[in-house]
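Much of our argument rests on the idea that a fold can be written as discrete symbols. The amino acid sequence and the backbone structure tokens for this protein are reproduced below:

___
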Amino acid sequence: MKSLKITKKDIKATNKYWKIYIGKEDVSDFQGNIVIEEGLGCVYFLSIKASGYIIAEANSGIQTARGIEAGNWIEADEEVVAGYDIRAGKGIKAGYDIKAGYNINAASNIIAGWGILAGKCIRSYGGIQAQWNIQAGEGINADSGIEAGNAIIAGYDIKAGKTIKAKEEIKAGGSIKTESLIESGKIIEAGMDIIASKGIKAGSSIKSGEKIIAGEEIISGGNIVSRNGILSLYSHIRASAIRVDTQGTIAAGIFCLNGNKNIETQEIIGNVVRGNLKIQPR
């Protein structure tokens, strides 16, 4: 496969932090691989597309006014930033931020040394991982796990095939759903359902505009609040501070045959249909 190496002679300095690509080769639809050599800093293109991979070597990054697209990997030692979409036939990896004005889409993992930000959706057929925030104006969806060193925030739904984990908050305007565990160092909040096949754990509070359902424990350092029910299918519900509060039903150990599970809190609001209620002293 043909390869294009972008070097110092192909760029022009600006009064911004980036340099502009001025090379003779058209990179808007290149048939082959594109490599940006090391030490160029952030290189700015109108758009860049390759049938193979796009790689920015050590101390180099990629920024475009429009889109970034590769049939294979997109990888940069510094940032990967696009005004429109970022699309990769395999994974996307950046030492700094990955940012798109519209969508970020990868057939494999999306990994950023800093944050991942999309004006619309983030979609990975692998996992999504960032050392800082993962944020989308619409949805975040991964076939594997989603993990952030700070927060995970979506205007619509957050969905994952494995664990959803953030050191700080997890917030969605729609639902939060996973086939595994949801875990936050602070709050978990959704405008709709919060559903996990395993447990739901928050260092602070858990709040849902609809239902909270977990296959295992629901544990919160603060309140657990839901409009339409709080249900643990096989284990306990525990709010370490103040209350468990819902307009619907509260049930712990729904499918357990060896006795009810515990519901532990300082105050309960709602209809307990299953579970051993244990009121903690204030």
